[in-house]
Sequence to fold (249 residues):
Amino acid sequence: MLSQLTEETGIGTHPDVPERRLVVAWQDPAARTYHKVGYLEVFEGPKFRFSYDTEAVAELENFEPFPNFPDEPYIYESSELFPFFNNRVISKKRPEYSTLLRAVALGEEASPIEILERSGGARETDTIQVFAVPEADGSGIVDVVFPAHGVRYVEGADERIAQLQKGDPLEFRDDPENKYNPDALLVVSGEPLGWVPDFLLPAARSLKTDFGAYRLAVEAANGPGVPFHFRLLCRLTVEDAGDWDPNSL
Fold:
């Protein structure tokens, strides 16, 4: 059942604490860059909530509210995963279902929200992606998995990724000559493989410089048999990050 709450905006206005919190990102068709536009939250029950980040979308000239969520000031709730997001979960009816789950380093027991979080929910028909918000656990460790973007545009990346194994070390590298975003961060293993998603850049830059030791490693490396957005999954682990504020993303 879907409901619209009051015109209160923002995140954290409800006393419940979400079990999972995902960033919903939209790609500007003109600039080709991804931007945070809202949050999908999962609560015990289960209960699902979607809300726009009204400050973020106010700065996006080309953004229009999603047809399923037409009113920006509202917070939407449902006892089931919204169809807008459920339709982005890899379907068990697809013959390549097991292959795609392995590509994102998940087992057959994974829940729809876990699959959505890990796969990013990308579709050929639009430019929406969904990713986990980096959060510190009780030990002050941030552990987040994200896909390398733009693999198809890096010459030789496919061949290099095919030689990688889970756990292999990766590095960040500045990309100041990037014509789309001079603040871009490359993901490299000796040579470039792809980029950190634009909307995760502030988090990645902060987590790698403002806290304890960090490690960037391969979570999953896949060949041409899977879509480009599944080719390389990266895991960023940061120690002594208990003061990290996930609301800064």
